[in-house]
Amino acid sequence: MAKQRPSELELQVLGVLWDRGPSTVRAVREAMPDGKDRAYTTILSVMQGMERKGLVGHTPQRQAHVYHATARREQVLEPMLRDLVRNAFGGSAARALQCLLGGSGVGAGELDEIRRVIDEADREQTEGQGGQP
Amino acid sequence: MAKQRPSELELQVLGVLWDRGPSTVRAVREAMPDGKDRAYTTILSVMQGMERKGLVGHTPQRQAHVYHATARREQVLEPMLRDLVRNAFGGSAARALQCLLGGSGVGAGELDEIRRVIDEADREQTEGQGGQP
DNA sequence: CTGGACCTACTACATATCTAGTATATACTA
DNA sequence: TAGTATATACTAGATATGTAGTAGGTCCAG
Question: Domain-by-domain residue ranges, chain B?
């Protein structure tokens, strides 16, 4: 049953599903984050493959099947990021963050939000020190 | 000349080269971040392909060729992370960070370092507000 | 009830990725 | 210098990925 790792394209499909909730193939096709225009059947094929892999499921509807992601964002991306940090950043999350912030246009608002995330992680870290399972 | 995107395996090779500096095929093979054991010629083939793509270069040495990355870590990874954030995290760097911290065993030391990175980004952000080119 | 619009299932195929073998050159060792 | 260890170049093939076409079903407008 081990959920397989999504490819680039599959990740985009999941991204759409996570952002907008259960969607039809058509809706996904139109919302692909890279603007690239692909044939309808291309997206359909990919999503059918994803279903075989267990990445998505679907419910037959009147008009068209409605697909949904079977795992939450973090469940899929945490392992991927963990590997990325290990493989490409020599295991340093700080270095990864630096890359994440650098270059990409992170606005001031985002930075505040990011700081909030850090604070939260810090709190959990400190609590964890006490160590309840 | 447009440097192509490295694959998973290629990224690992680059990771080794960035972490340890110019290295032989043998050295890379032994330092691959995922512990997986591969034939010597497997790594060799991959690195030869990377040279064709312009991801690495090499200097013939007495014993064995010494390979080096042709681009710095950030040059390769920033675009990759930018795409990842857009494609999988709905464009939210904060969400990506949350994933980065969650699950992966980020120690307290790392957290401090991370905070330092954030502060720096903040400083640059604020300075940028004033707006010297 | 018929023609178009739209949907899914299935098939096909080019390219990339990962893997490793074979052949051959080179260098150190005894 | 003969033999072994090690390196590279080249080749090969299995699997994954991205792409799209064709066939056939369903539903609604006229």
Answer: 8-69, 89-128
Residues of B in contact with A11 (CB under 8 A): 84, 87-88
Contacting residues of A for B83, CB less than 8 Å apart? 34
CA distance A59 to A77: 24
| Residue range B52-110, pLDDT digits in tens | 999 999 999 878 999 999 999 999 999 999 999 999 999 999 999 999 988 656 777 88
Calpha distance A88→B116 (Å, rounded): 21
* Statement: A8-69 belongs to CATH 3.30.565.10: no
Facing A93 at nearest CB: one of B19, B100, B122 = B100
Q: Taking CB atoms and an 8 Å limit, are B94 and A114 in contact across chains?
A: yes
Strand C close residues, chain B 60-99, CB < 7 angstroms: 62-63
> Does at least one atom of strand C sit less than 7 Å from the CB of B39?
yes
Categorize the per-residue pLDDT at A133 as very low, low, confident or very high, splitting at 50, 70 and 90. Answer: very low
> Where on the phi/psi map is residue B54: left (φ > 0), alpha (ψ -120 to 50), or beta?
left
